Amino acid sequence: MDIDAPALVELTGVNKHFGDLHVLRDINLTVRKGEVLVVVGPSGSGKSTLCRAINRLETIDEGAIRVDGKPLPAEGRGLARLRADVGMVFQSFNLFAHKTVLDNVTLGPRKVRRSSRKAADDEALALLRRVGVEDQARKMPAQLSGGQQQRVAIARALAMHPKVMLFDEPTSALDPEMVNEVLDAMVALAKEGMTMIVVTHEMGFARKAADRVVFMADGQIVEEADPDTFFTAPTSERAKDFLSKILIH
Ligand SMILES: Nc1ncnc2c1ncn2[C@@H]1O[C@H](COP(=O)(O)OP(=O)(O)OP(=O)(O)O)[C@@H](O)[C@H]1O
């Protein structure tokens, strides 16, 4: 990753509450073009909320979030553009159940990017090939395994030509034997230079693919470091405690 690359996602003084719960506490974070940032931390530390705020699936109470230099839009067309620029892959694959795999991938480009059917189909098939599921294109999502569905979800986000991809625990709902096929697709994407923010409990992925690891606890960024430093020499007691409780491959 180029350390002089321009900032693509910038959070400044971000605070968020759910009622009395202060779920994001003064978050300052910059993700540069081409960077792979992995966010780790205990359950309930605010990792999902952070991801969702960047895509404006959650509003924030204070602070500013910029994507590619622009503040997040409030509503309307700007929001559709933001959701195209910021691709999101969730734990639950969120595919449209009544549409074929191919239609799941082409729907966004045809609607938002006004691609022709032929152009959208051709690109979708190329993307499905890239994540290894092109032979599933005519099937319905329910006919696919969880790992295949998640790879379709990645292809669907990529079809919008995102500037950054957010992954919120993309393998947590998968059977163990399917985890690697999704992680491999993500590693390939990282190697191609995609800017990525990945919330995960897969520390092997973090070690392999992350440029930087951010450790969150109680809504705060407690520590951030390159993966080698974070996993071998964490400085905060909270990160040490967290790492002592998980298995690192
Ligand atoms: N819509 C909501 N309304 C109220 N509280 C919420 C809401 N969404 C999340 N929370 C709470 O905010 C806190 C942070 O949640 P969040 O999902 O961001 O954590 P997380 O670090 O992603 O956790 P996990 O690893 O378990 O997914 C939790 O205590 C959660 O219960």
TrEMBL record:
Keyword Nucleotide-binding: yes
Entry membrane topology: Peripheral membrane protein
Principal localisation: membrane
Catalytic activity: a polar amino acid(out) + ATP + H2O = a polar amino acid(in) + ADP + phosphate + H(+)
UniProt GO molecular function: ATP binding; ATP hydrolysis activity; ATPase-coupled polar amino acid-transporter activity
Boundaries of every ABC transporter domain copy: 9-243
Family as reported in the entry's similarity comment: Belongs to the ABC transporter superfamily.
PANTHER family: AMINO ACID IMPORT ATP-BINDING PROTEIN, GLUTAMATE_ASPARTATE IMPORT ATP-BINDING PROTEIN GLTL
Name of protein: ABC-type polar-amino-acid transporter
Organism annotation: Xylanimonas ulmi
Taxonomic path: Bacteria, Bacillati, Actinomycetota, Actinomycetes, Micrococcales
